[in-house]
Each structure stands twice: as structure tokens, then as C-alpha cells.
Amino acid sequence: MSSNLTAEKEIAATWFRALRDEIVSAFENLEQQESPSQSTARAAAQFTVRETKRSGDDGEEAGGGQMSIMRDGCVFEKVGVNVSTVFGTLSAAAQSAMMARKDLRGIADNPQFWASGISLVAHMQNPHCPAVHMNTRMFWTPHAWWFGGGSDLNPCIEYQADTEHFHATQKQHLDRHDLALYPRLKDWADRYFFIPHRGRARGVGGIFMDDYCSGDWETDFNLTQDIGRAFLPAFIPLVERRMDTAWTEEDKQIQLVHRGLYAEYNLVYDRGTKFGLASGHDVDAVLMSLPPLARWV
């Protein structure tokens, strides 16, 4: 049985908010850099923030968070960095979705839950800059607790050097804990971010874990933190390397078609999307990951 973990929940939620603040600041700094590709001066894009709410089945407030969105920048076409802490009673649909992947026998007798996390998706202006996803989260029920998350790179125009840097940075952060973790979490990401109806991955992979619980909360939380800490050093150098690369209209069309893959995956397969909608969270926050523009052949 899971204890209440009251102090641990607050520690985790505070960490997710701090990571959001760090990432938002780093992304705004990228937008403020002078770019030789800009023909005219323009105001640097900034994040706008709005509160999100979750309503329980009884209509009572059941937590929420903040959705931070930046649109139409020189570097980012659309990027969202959301944090949330939600709680309440799991609906029958949410219980079914969770039971399909984790042994939570008895949850129907006490379907309470608490969850907190950060979720990020960035869609870039320049087709040579890779799109990226990252999330980390903690989930608690009276029956169990666990962590999840990871990050994966989604370039429409692939560069081997970028892929190698992204993976090497994540491996470096995971190796601090256990040398067996990186290959395990890389394989997990390769399987999780696969699109069955297309017979291909949506990107070049990364790391991912779900329902992760060793039984030692502090050890697992430290691992989750290092997954979050790996994100900026894994991604920012790639943006700085590619953001001023010249691109063509053909490159842009390739980008839009690749975004179609991203939209298909998130709407059809992504567990976070399914749970967010089934549990009554803010719909716009749940669907923040979708690209601003996409096309299909």
C-alpha cells in the first residue's frame, strides 16, 4: 500500500515548477539573441501564462496549473511548457486506462489520485531545428506511487551530430545513477514513440520511463530530476547550431508533413493525452502539444 507521501508530493511539485521557470527563461533568452537571418528588427517573443483548472466529477475544484505558451517567435513557432498538480477521484475511464498498464487491484474501492508534472513541446520556425518533447511527472494513489517521463527529439531534417549529442547528454545524466539505465530507457522510448499505423518512429528517439517505482522514493525522484536536468544541455546547443541555417520552401513543406506524424501520434496513442482528457483536465492544456500548422500528403 502507498503512504500519503504528503511532504514528498510538495517537494516534487515545487521541483517541476522550478524546472518550468528555468526552461522558460532559457527559451526566451534564445528569442532575444540577435539573428543575422532577421531582415528587420522585431520585438522578442515572450511566454504568456494562464491558469488551468481541473474540475472533479462532483464539480469541485480538483487542482490545476499553469500553461505557458510562446508563439510566432524568430526561433519558436509554438512552444508550450505546462505544469500542473491535480487530484481527486479517478473516473471509470481513467481507472480503466491505468489498469491496462499497472496492477492497481482495489482501486475501484478507493479511486483517489494525485499527480504533478511538467510537459513541454516545442515546434520550431526553422525546419533545420528539431522539434522536441519533454515531460516528467509523479503519480500517487492509495495503492501505489510512481514516476514517469523523458524526452525525445523530432527533427524533420535529420543531422547525425544532433542525434548523437542529444542521446549522449541524456546518457551522461543517467549514468550517474546506473550504467544500465540509458540503454533501458532508450529502448523504452523507441518502443513508446513508435507509430504502428505508419510503421515508423515519430523522431530519432531519446529516453522514456513510465510507471517507474523502485520502492525508494528519494532514489526515483533523484533520477526524475536528472532526466529533467538533461533537457536543456541536450537541446539548446542544437537550436543554437541550426536556428540561422538557410531554408527553402521545400524544407518547410517537409517540416509540415513531419508535424502530421506528431499530431497523429499524440491524438491516437499518447497515454498522457488520453489520461488528461479522461480525467477532466483543461482541454487546451492537454492539447498544447499539437503543432500550429501541419499537412498531410
Short description:
With 297 residues, the protein is an alpha+beta fold.
Report on the structure:
The protein has 297 residues and is an alpha+beta fold. It is 40% helix and 27% strand. The mean pLDDT is 90.
Fraction in helix:
40-55%
Overall spatial form:
globular
End-to-end Cα distance? 50 Å
What structural category characterises the helix and strand content?
alpha+beta
Number of strands: 9
% residues in beta strands: 25-35%
The strands making up the biggest β-sheet line up spatially as 1-2-3-4-5-6-9
Order of helices and strands: HEEEHEEEHHEEEHHHHH
Describe the main β-sheet briefly: 7 strands, antiparallel
Please report the number of helical segments: 9
The radius of gyration is 19 Å
Mean pLDDT: 90
Q: Please mark out the parts with pLDDT under 50 across 5 or more consecutive residues, or reply none.
A: none
Search tags:
9 helices; alpha+beta; 297 residues; single chain
How is this fold's topology laid out?
Layout: H1 6-32, E1 48-55, E2 61-71, E3 76-89, H2 92-99, E4 112-124, E5 131-141, E6 144-154, H3 160-175, H4 181-192, E7 194-195, E8 200-201, E9 205-212, H5 217-229, H6 231-242, H7 249-268, H8 271-278, H9 283-286
Antiparallel strand pairs: 1-2, 2-3, 3-4, 4-5, 5-6, 6-9, 7-8
